[in-house]
Amino acid sequence: MLNINNLHVELEEEDKKILKGVDLTIKAGTVHAIMGPNGSGKSTLSYVLSGKDGYDVTEGAATLDGLDLLDMEPEERAAAGLFLAFQYPVEIPGVGNMTFLRTAVNAQRKARGEDEMSAADFLKLVRARAKELKIDADMLKRPVNVGFSGGEKKRNEILQMAMLEPKMCILDETDSGLDVDAMKLVAQGVNALRAEGRSFLVITHYQRLLDHIKPDVVHIMADGKIIKSGGPDLALEVENNGYEDILAEVA
Amino acid sequence: MALANPKQSATEARLTALTLPSGGWSEPARQDALLRLQAMGLPQRRDEYWKFTRPDTLLDSQAPTAAVFVNDDGRMFEAYDQINIVFVDGVFDADASDELVLEGVHVERLADIADKDIHWAKDLYGTLESKGQTPVERPFAALNTAFASDGVVIHVTGKPSKPVCLTYIHNSEVSDAILHNVVRVDEGAELTLLENGPAAARFNNVTEIDIADGGTLHFIRAHGRDHERRAVTHMFARLGEKSTFKAFTLTVNGVLTRNECVIELAGNDAFAHVAGACVGDGDFHHDDTVFITHDALNCESRQVFKKVLRNGATGVFQGKILVKAGAQKTDGYQISQALLLDGDSQFLAKPELEIYADDVICSHGSTTGAIDEEALYYLRSRGVPKSAATDLLTLAFLIEAVEEIDDKVIADTIVSRLESWLARR
User: Which tens digits make up the pLDDT trace of A128-182?
Assistant: First the structure.
């Protein structure tokens, strides 16, 4: 599904290398987790994959089902099935959450040459999905993320994911700022979307989230590279011993 | 020989093309206005109040020509049940207008009542305009009072079941319209007044509004879609106790627009809300000049102005809140914001507060900026193409001003007009 090959990335504005040769292959239907200390390049990886401005890819490639992601506009990547759940979802005053969702769903359908979803079908679907995430009608009416609590913002990200039904979902520190109950709710939302043709890349600092979203593969990222990969046990090891041992072992 | 005063000669040149209507109840007010105008003179580029807007084309004795725009959207407020009064190039069109009969409101045409010796409008005509000349002069309003060819006088006695709509059609490339309206809202009465259209190649419009205690006026205006038209408009409103005045103006296109709004909160617990949304592209200059005077206890005033500018368009905002001594518990708010869609456009803002009372809340803000890149990326990452995402954010910016309108249906109509402006780009 997702293939990242020797990816090197620098910040556009300053001469700073962030990713220094990332290799990652995610097969369809699997859940991968990336852990790593602050500043290791985890969030940058998610931004570069989704097409945020400000990054220069100096070497390497990233493909989604064979399509060259790095050559596409952010909206084209989304229509191709990539989704990034933001660490800090953006507030958009004046744009209703519902309008936003419907515009996004129909824009993606249009880009894929599919018919737009009827207003009635859309409403039915959004209500059902929102209910599962305990998102009430008021939250759907309000402007996107404006005045939402941290937990509400993250649930809103998962709602977007559920509506857009992407095949490659990247979750960037979706657990940050969440209490235990909110984290469970978000994890349930993610687990409900787990399917054969859908893969996940879960970026997190803590093993806790991985208790709820069970990964198939865990990667440790440090200084712009994946330095170690393993099974779910690797996350437990980090939880118990921190990153130091692993960093020392690789060095 | 004395040196010619440029202000005076400009004023005289403008007056050569005009004739003061004589006779009837309004003549003294018109004569007074002419004297006022001659004393102050028409504005020149050097005048502080016209620093950001060149008055030149408003001074010419002949209006510059303006191509007539064929509007494919239909008349803006067409869908509502209403009393519609139509002026074409400033001339009343009886065939296109509805009969001026509606319970709770009495509507007459200025030209129809001109010959009468006595009329209630005598107390108001030119009165609020004259008062609004201090502390800042508004010469085009005095010119209007003196020379207005027509307009409507509206006396609201109850709560009419439907709005009164003034439709101003621009039909001739060479046209110069001067219309003067007077609105009196009785105690506890309420009206929605709609205005739509460019009116003429050059339009000078004054509306004087007197709202008695507990009265309400909703005033929603739109200037049409003509690109080349020019307009200078004034609204003067005086608010009684517990009265409400809410005004909203939509401007789409137009080479020059100067909208002045002068409000006096004269009775305690009154509300005045003025808002405007404008969108302009290229040869577009839009000026909102607002002066709100708090002269009573516990009043609230609110100004919300939004401008979207591109391709060298210019936006101007001059807004002042004056809180007089004794106007305690005043709540004054003012925000003016411009969204510049490129580097060629500009927004010039002069927000002012002048406060002589010590127990008040007054705030003002002004911002100029481009589309929020973070929001744009967020929308695009969800699959919304860049142009559609830009439109969505532009509309969101404008909607904050449109939301000042109480009537949801009218607000939706305004939004759909803004959407179609965006879609045409």
Answer: 999 888 888 888 999 999 999 888 899 999 999 999 999 999 999 988 888 888 8
Mean pLDDT of chain B: 95
* Domains in chain A, CATH or no CATH each: 2-250 (3.40.50.300)
How far B381 CA sits from the closest chain A CA (Å)?
5
pLDDT band at A248 (very low <50, low <70, confident <90, very high): confident
Q: Give yes or no for residue A31 having a pLDDT over 70.
A: yes
Minimal C-alpha gap between A75 and chain B (Å) = 4
> A117 at the B interface (CB within 8 A)?
no
**In chain B, whose CA is at the least distance from the CA of A97?**
B379
Nearest CB among A52, A92, A104 relative to B375 is that of A92
Find the mean pLDDT for residues B218-229.
94
Q: Is the pLDDT of residue A211 over 80?
A: yes
Which of A79, A90, A93 is facing B396, going by the closest CB pair? Answer: A93
Q: Is the ipTM of this complex over 0.90?
A: yes
Percentage above 70 pLDDT, chain B: 99
Given B374, B384, B398, which is nearest A75 (Cβ)? B384
| Buried b / exposed e along B295-325 (16+ C-beta atoms within 10 A) | bbbbbbbbbbbbbbbbeebbbbbbbbbbbbe
Give the residue on B whose Cα is nearest the Cα of A143. Answer: B396
Per-residue pLDDT, B423? 87
Q: Please report which confidence band the pLDDT of residue B42 belongs to, taking 50, 70 and 90 as the band edges.
A: very high
Mutate which: A92, A145, A160, vs B, most B CBs within 10 A:
A92
CA distance B394 to chain A (A): 9
Q: How far away is chain A from the Cα of B385, in angstroms, using its nearest Cα?
A: 6
- Listed by number, the residues of chain A in 44-63 with a beta carbon closer than 8 Å to a beta carbon of chain B are 50-53
Report the mean per-residue pLDDT for chain A: 91
Q: Which residues on B lie below 8 Å from A52 (Cβ)? A: 377, 381
Q: Would the pLDDT of B4 be above 70?
A: no
Longest CA–CA separation in chain B, Å = 75
Q: Which residue of A has its CA nearest to B393?
A: A95
Q: With contacts defined as CB-CB under 8 Å, which chain A residues touch B393?
A: 92, 94-95
Q: Which of B375, B382, B396 sits opposite A78 (nearest CB)?
A: B382
Tell me the average pLDDT across B388-396. 95
CA distance B107 to A217: 78
Tens-digit pLDDT profile for residues A69-110: 999 999 999 999 999 999 999 999 989 999 999 999 999 999
Indicate yes or no: CB of B388 within 8 angstroms of CB of A94. no
**Would the CB atoms of B380 and A74 count as touching at under 8 Å?**
yes
